[in-house]
Amino acid sequence: MIINERESEFVIIEQHNHAVLSGDLFSYLQEEFFTGKEQKQDILFATQYHDCAWIGLDAAPLWDDKKNSPYSFINLPSPLKLPHYRYGIDWIEQRNKYAALLCSRHYSSFFSNSKSEDEIKYLQYEKTRQKRLCLELGIAIEDSNIHLEILKFLDNLSIYICINEPGVPKSDEFPWYQNGFEGTELFSVEKSDRIVAYWLNEGYIGLTPFPFTRAFEVTMPTKIVGKCDIKEKGIIEAYKDVPAVFRTFKIGPMGSTSIL
Predict the structure, then answer these.
(1) CA-CA distance, 48 to 51, in Å (whole number)?
(2) pLDDT digits over 81-105, tens only?
(3) Any residues with CB less than 8 A from the CB of 50 and at least 6 apart, and which?
(4) CA torsion, points 221, 80, 74, 103, in degrees to nearest 10?
(5) Residues 38-85: tens digit of each pLDDT
(6) Are 63 and 99 in contact (CB under 8 A)?
(7) How confident is the model at residue 191 (pLDDT cuts 50, 70, 90)?
(8) Domain residue extents for the chain
(9) CA dist 125 to 42, 100, 160, Å?
(10) Are 239 and 227 within 8 A, CB to CB?
(11) Distance of CA 252 to the CA centre of its chain
(12) How confident is the prediction for the chain on average, in pLDDT?
C-alpha cells in the first residue's frame, strides 16, 4: 500500500492500482526512447503487473503499532513481503517470460546492498531465475537494460503521483524524487538530464524534459480512511467499509497547465 498520512485520516492507494497507472503511463511514452519495439506488449505487461504480488497483501491491511499507521510498501517487514514477491513473479512468468525477467530484475534491485539473510536468499533465488529466463529467451541479460529503466521510471513516476499531496511545493515533496528520477537520462536529447516532476497545481504535474507523446490525464482509485473509524473498527474493517474515490490528474510539459 502507498500511504499518505493527514491529521485525521490516511490516504491509501493499493499497489496494484499504482502498477496499472504505470501501464497507463507507458502507453503515452515516446517509442524513440527504447529499442526492441517488438517487445512493447511484454514491457507493457511487466509495467501493468509488476506489483501483482501486493494484491493479496493489500486486501487486508496490516497495522504498524510502532508508527501507529497502516504498513506501507516501504516498511512492511521483509518476511511478510518476500514470499509474495516470489509468488508474484511466478505468476507473471507463467504468462510472459520477458515481463518476468524485467520484474525479477526490478525487485532484485531493492535488495542489492542488503545484509538480511532472508533478503540475500531471495536475491540469490531471483538471480538464478534471471539466468534461466535469459537462456530460455535466448538473450543476454544486458539486452533488457533499457526496458528495465523504463519500468523503473514509470514505477517511480506513478509512486510520485500517488505518494505526494496534490499541489505540494517541490521542497515538501516525498524526498525520493525531489532531485528527479534516477536513471532517466536516457530520455533526454543529450542523454544527460534527469526527468524532474513538479506539482504545478492540485491537478497538474509538469515534467522536464517531457518523455511522452502528448499531455494526458490519468485517474487513480483511492481510499481515504478516517483515524476515528480505524480506532472504532480496526484497520481491516475501516478500510473495507470506505468507498473508493477517483482522483484525476493531468500530466504534461512544464509551462502549461491545460490539455488540448
Answers:
(1) 8
(2) 999 999 999 999 999 999 999 999 9
(3) 19, 22, 92, 102, 103, 106, 151, 155
(4) -70
(5) 889 999 999 999 999 999 999 999 999 999 999 999 999 999 999 999
(6) no
(7) low
(8) 2-253
(9) 22, 13, 30
(10) no
(11) 19
(12) 93
Identify the helix (H) or strand (E) that includes residue 103.
Answer: helix 97-108
Secondary structure, 3-state, 149-184: HHHHHHHHHHHHHHHCCCCCCHHHCCHHHCCCECCH
Q: Identify residue 218 by its one-letter amino acid code.
A: V
Q: Which helix (H) or strand (E) holds 188?
A: none
**Helix axes 97-108 and 78-95, enclosed angle (nearest 10):** 160
- Could you count the other beta carbons within 10 Å of the beta carbon of residue 151? 21
The Cα–Cα gap between 107 and 166 comes to 28
172-177 contacts at long range (C-beta below 8 A, 24 or more positions apart):
173/199
Q: Which among 91, 106, 100, 111 has a CA at the least distance from the CA of 134?
A: 100
Cell of residue 212, nine digits: 511522452
Question: Rounded to 5 degrees, what are φ and ψ at 51?
Answer: -110, 25
SS3 69: strand
Are 209 and 187 a contacting pair, CB within 8 Å?
yes
Query: What is the biggest distance separating any 2 CA atoms in the chain, rounded to whole angstroms?
Result: 56
Torsion of CA 72, 73, 76, 79, to 10 degrees: 160
Q: Residue 70 has which C-alpha cell? A: 497502516
CA distances from 140 to 33, 62, 63, 96, 98 (A): 20, 40, 42, 17, 12
